[in-house]
Amino acid sequence: MDPTGARVLIVDDDPSSRRLLDVRLRALGCETATAADGQEGLALVQREAPALMLLDLQMPRMGGLELLRALRREGLDFPIIVITAHGSIEAAVEAMKEGAYDFLPKPFDARHLDIVVRKALERRSLVEANRLLQDTLDSRTSEILGESQAIREAITVARKAAAASSTVLLLGESGTGKEVFAHAIHRWSDRREKPLVVVNCVALSEHLLESELFGHEKGAFTGAHQTKKGKFELAHGGTVFLDEIGDMPPALQAKLLRVLQDHNFERVGGTKPIRADLRVIAATNRDLDQAAKDGRFREDLFYRLNVVRITLPPLRERKEDLAVLAPYLVAKFAAETKKMVRGVSEQAMGRLQAHTWPGNVRELANVIERAVVLCSGDHIQVEDLALPHLAHAPTAPPPMSAGNGDFHSQVRASKQAIIRTALDRAGGNQTKAAELLGLQRTYLVKLLREFEIRNMGPATG
Length: 461
Description:
Layout: E1 7-11, H1 15-27, E2 31-35, H2 38-48, E3 52-56, H3 64-73, E4 80-84, H4 89-97, E5 102-105, H5 110-139, H6 149-162, E6 168-171, H7 178-188, E7 196-200, H8 206-214, E8 215-216, E9 228-229, H9 231-234, E10 239-243, H10 250-262, E11 264-265, E12 274-275, E13 279-284, H11 288-293, H12 299-305, E14 308-311, H13 322-337, E15 343-344, H14 346-354, H15 360-374, E16 379-380, H16 407-425, H17 430-437, H18 441-450
Parallel strand pairs: 1-2, 1-3, 3-4, 4-5, 6-13, 6-14, 7-10, 10-13, 15-16
Antiparallel strand pairs: 8-9, 11-12
C-alpha cells in the first residue's frame, strides 16, 4: 500500500531514534508526529488520530505496554508496531498479546522498516474497508418483492440505472421501499465490492450533518479533537445513499451540488481538495418538483439529482403484491422469533386486502411482526392483526404452503382468488371491484384477461 499521507505517531524517549524514524517515514511520504513518553503519546493520539503508531516499550513515566493497554481500554483501534531493544523479544511477545500488530528490533534495518510500515497501513485500510462493507451488509434490507406491473417497471428502470454511475432519485411515500431499492441498485452495480454508505439527512442538525458528510479537520470547531473522515470520503469507489434529501439545509445543498458537479470537496475546517469517486442515490417523500419551483430546494441541485428518476408506488396501488409480501414477512418473523407460524388465514388475508396501508410496506411489516408474536396457532388470524375493524372484510385465498406447486403457480392462484373475491363483493361491477383492490379499472381489466377470469357483471357502476 502507498503510505503517502498516512499519519504516523512515533513514541520513543530516545531523541536520535525519533529523528531517524521521522526521516525515514517522511521519505516514504508519511506525515509524522512525535512524543517522548507514553503520557505525551496518549495525549497526541486524541489530537492526531494516527493511522499507525511506532511505540518504544522502555520509556519513563508511562511505558509502552502501559500505553498499549490504555489505548485498548479506550477502544482506540489502529495498528501499533512496538520497538524493542536487542534481547527483549519476550517483551515484544507480551506486547503482541496485548494487541500490537508487529515488532521492530533495534537497531532496525531501513528496508525492514519500510515493509513493516506498509503492511501495517495495508491492514488498517483493509480493516476499515471491511468495517464499511459489514455495515453495508448489516443494513441491507430484504430483496424487492412484488409481481405487480408498477413494481416490475420500477425494478426494470433500477436495473438499467445500476449499470451506469448516474445519480438516481427515488421518490415515493414513506415506507414504500426506497432504501430497499437503493441497496438493490448498489448490489446490481459494478461498485458492489465497495461500500454503500447511508446518510439520513433529517436525523442530524445542519452542523452535524455537514461534519458527517464532509468530515472535519482537527480543531475545526469546539470538540473536534481529531481529524474525522466524512461519508463521502469513506464511500470512495462506492455509493452514498442520501435519504430524506428534501430536508437537507440550503447551505449544504450548495456544497452537495459541488460534489455532484466536480467530484471534489473539503473537510470542515480544511483547505485541501479531496477527490470523491462515488455514485449518489437520493430519496425523498417530498414533492421536489414543487419545492424547486417554490425556491425551497435548489433548482440546479434538483436537476443534478433528477437524472434517473424512479417513483415507487404505494402499497394501496399494488395490493396484489400482498400475496407475495405477506407470506415472505411471516416466514421472516417466524424464523426470528422461533415460532411455528406458517401463513395467514383466509379471513386474515381478507383483512390485509381491505386495509388502505397509509404506512405502506413498513406498516405491513410491523403488522405482520406483531401478528406473528401474538399468534397462538400455525396461521395468523384476524384477531392477531392490529388493524381497524371492518364489518365486511373480503375473503382471500388460503395461505400458501409447500406441496401446492411452485412459487409462481401459487402466486398466480392467489391473485386469481383475490380478484374473484373482489368481483363477488362488487356484484360483478368492475369499477367497484377495482376500488376494493386499490387498482385502476383498466389495469383490473388487463388482469382479468391475463388470468382468464370471466366476469359477466357490468363493467362500470
